[in-house]
Specification:
single chain; 559 residues; alpha/beta; ABC transporter transmembrane region fold; Rossmann fold; 2 domains; six-stranded mixed sheet; four-stranded antiparallel sheet; 12 strands; 65% helix; disordered C terminus; ABC transporter ATP-binding protein; ATP-binding
Length: 559
Amino acid sequence: MRSLPVPDPGVPGRLTPWGHLRWLARVEPRALGAGIVFGILWMLSQALVPVALGRAVDDGIAARDTGALLGWSAVLLGLGAVQAASGILRHRRASFVWLAAAYRTAQVVTRQATRLGAALPRRISAGEVVSVGLTDVAHIGDGMDIMIRGSGAVVTIVVVSALLLGASLPLGLIVVIGVPLVLAAAAPLFRPYHRRTHVLRERVGELNTRAADIVAGLRVLRGIGGEQIFAERYRAGSQRVRRAGVRVAQVDSALSGAQILLPGLLIALVVWAGARAATTGAITPGELVTFYGYAVFLIHPMRTIGEAADKLIRAHVAAGRVVRLLALTPEPVLAGTTEPAGPGDLTDTESGLVVRPGRCTALVATDTAAARAIADRLGRYVDAGEVAYAGVPLRELADLRARILVAINEDRLFAGPLRAGLGDGPGVAAALHAACAEDIAEPDAHVAEAGREFSGGQQQRLRLARALAADPEVLILVEPTSAVDAHTEARIADRLRAARTGRTTLVCTTSPLMLDRADHVVFVSGGAVAAEGTHRELLRTTPGYAAVVTRGETLAPAD
């Protein structure tokens, strides 16, 4: 008996869905190989039963030979014993392969999550990680398990076809030609099944993310009476998952029906042709029994092949999600030693963005993911593109994290005294004032885990105060006021500009209040800079910018 999980799961192979499944098959060759052998033996022992029955009819009953009848009865008993023993061994190996694949995948996913560390929430949602760790690993285990029975089904169909061709060429041809036709008739259902399964998996991940957010903020939601609103949102998300599941079930039921109807039609054709051959004397009564037994038996391996297609599609979708997580790279190692001559331009070659020193610049993007990607590049949380500060590439810049700070809404508030988390420098009071957080940061305020006792707007203001208190040369804020009310947002916009006078600030936002207070606004479309100017200039001259900022609403011309 081998213990699971193994101490070292190994390194996955090529990062593709099929590559991940092949790697899982290669790391357990003995268990998988033995399982396939026992699976073939288990199904072949069933396939030979019709032959023994037919011979018992011809050699024993028709010929009135008691010895032959007893002999073939013993053969049937032996086939039953082989089937029972091989079935037990096959199931043991299949269970081990299922567990090994699921545990090994869970291990490499956990190891990757640990390797990513703080970069993990920047790259993937919590709900997606939960879905990978629970649902996807199970589907991958199912995919490895079905390989054992699927291999037995394929080999058995080939052997049965050969036996039928040897006994009767016309009947054998019906089976040999009919089986591929049956499989081909069901093939058009596999593509929509794969597509709908993928959509269902996306919906489940989104719902898990929403559930994680609700649980994390449940205490605050109860305090502000927001439980019902989020419950309605969760209910709506749950209904989307249900509808996606129904669409998958529709194709799945069609596949299940095809797996019964199409083999049934083949059986009827074989029985009809066999009966006609028996009445003309072309085959013996025992051979008719054999042909009928084969026709009935073939339903089993053919349904197993259909099941294999189903589970391998699910495993492929699940492996794709795992591979996407494994492909994420950790934050680059910061080992630069070059000191810049002084504050200078922060440039991103990929998008064409240039953030001038000493100004408050706002960035508006048609796609929020594009704005987030630019912020990650400017802070070198991803090592992509050519980014430089004061002419020095970020990979060579000394003390990068002290010079350039990127603040996002996923940043955590540390448990403990609030003042300890903000620091005790001389700029803390000014930072709290600029973030409109004086009413939250009482001297004896204590932060629970992840700041769950604060509302979303309060957490956002505390994060902003912490970022301002750090007083970096370059501060990059991603949607810093998305959770506060308009009155507070207007005050923050005014105070932020004053607090960062002489420092370089980039605010990624679509808020008109923040944009109107910025020194300069950059509009990014398709991942590249499309226009620059002040907020009011861009409203007049750039329709795409106006559409993003006003959410498609028509506003009166700015004064």
